[in-house]
Amino acid sequence: MKATIINVGYGDAILFQADGGYTALLDGGSALETEFAADPYRIRCADFLRRQNIRHLEAVVISHIHEDHVCGLEPVLRQIPADRIFVPYPLEPFLEGRELRPAPDAFRSVPLYANALNAFRRILLQARDNGVPVTTVGPGDTLELAPELKVRVLAPKAASISAYMELIRQAYAAEDEASVTECLAKLDATSNQTSLLLRVESGKTAMLLAADSCPREWDEVPSFLFENVNVLKLPHHGQIDSISEQFMKNMPLECVITTASSDHRYNSANPQVYERLSRWRSPHTPRFLFSDERSYPPYFSQPGGFQAITLEIDSGGITPKFI
Predict the structure, then answer these.
(1) How do beta strands 59-61 and 22-26 pair?
(2) pTM score over 0.90
(3) Average pLDDT, stretch 11-32?
(4) Percent above pLDDT 70 for the chain
(5) Which backbone phi and psi does 294 adopt, to 5 degrees?
(6) In angstroms, rounded to a whole number, what is the distance separating the alpha carbons of residues 200 and 208?
(7) 90-112: buried (b, 16+ CB within 10 Å) or exposed (e) per residue?
């Protein structure tokens, strides 16, 4: 099995390829022009899949609604058919909703969130029109995506989804711009709490893919599901809230992946994160991999640049390769 972390700058887009040609995609990164103008190695998810000759996706998983996870999926799904889509939310309120726009003077993150919300709704509408099944998943669900690819859903909490969906209903019911903007701001602030937390298992390898689900949201997850994790995709782009000694100290980590942008905006790829992980895991420090860095001393160096990192997972272990 191969898991490819695409360099979409600040954002997540992970492609899975199993034996027999099976393909699945977790998130699609950003659609912002500015995200890809700054670095020649960053690449839109749709462009990367086209260059890799990916013509069909058996499954698409959307972790949660934020611009850097959802908006890049729209062009993907316009060019590549998908058999099914998995999301953490009930569908009806979105399908019955409408395009939302915040006030012009809203804080910058609010229109970005609105872009993601509207893109998510359009993806659901397109799936309905094309007869593509969309399934709501939550803790306790297991997706047998391929014989060698099993995905366990560990989060989000039911209470987080319930509170979020009440805000979604309020936003669609709001009749004035100020009320819509207020709801969008609250949704933006709480969307990470609704993010999927996934344990992906292939043979003896277990990957914990956290999107933006931070450890403070993991208290309801049975502890045994954090055992034997070899690969950790840090939540929240390696910001300081991405780690927890309680959950991570005893993980037999071989690789830790950060999907932050190389400009380290929002204090992402925070140096304290790697210092603490190294201390907790000493003397067996994992290999740190960064999707949009050429150098992050003393942990990482790949001066030639790359558009993706592929983890080749087999009985011999985990082998990172740079594309």
Answers:
(1) parallel
(2) yes
(3) 96
(4) 100
(5) -105, -25
(6) 6
(7) eeebbeebeebebeeebeeebbb
